[in-house]
Amino acid sequence: MTKQSVLRGWVAGFIVMVVLVGCAGTEQMSAGKSLYDRLGGKSSISAVVDQFVANVAADTRINGRFATTDIRKLKGHLVDQICTATGGPCTYNGRDMKTTHAGMKISNGDFGALVEDLVKSLDTFKVPGREKGELLDLLGPMKKDIVEAP
Ligand code: HEM
What we know:
Layout: H1 3-32, H2 35-39, H3 41-57, H4 71-85, H5 97-101, H6 108-124, H7 129-139, H8 143-146
Helix pairs in contact: 3-4, 3-6
């Protein structure tokens, strides 16, 4: 084996190592990112909430419920709530879910309709399946505090 071929072997080995370490690093970086960051931060969440609320407003199954609601305030609360729940740098100053929805007699069907309107918005913005699933998993447990009617 000549000195040159040993050197070539070392160089090739070094390049392979650098590529492997680089790939592992990139994977770790994306795996370690918060859902908030993977969704694209506050501006992306605001865009999703805007479209979500527009979908609810057009949804005759549930839009009547929001007839007297201050929509600008509601959007702000929803953005802060999603931002906080996904690990973003926000504070949710709205009321808790039980107090907010108490006495509205919201049904399973109403809840399902609202989730459909949210999914439609997430699909409009082509939010990937993993992030969509994680966000819905965060909202799912709130159902027991929101739904009162069968
Ligand atoms: C996971 C599901 C839901 C979430 C995360 C959610 C979240 C919220 C938030 C953050 C607010 C504002 C709280 C505040 O004003 O302090 C709110 C208000 C409201 N929610 Fe929900 N909500 C959900 C489901 C529903 C459903 C299914 C309905 C009925 C179809 C509904 C009807 C309302 C109404 C009418 C208001 C406005 C109350 C007002 O005008 O003061 N929500 N919701």
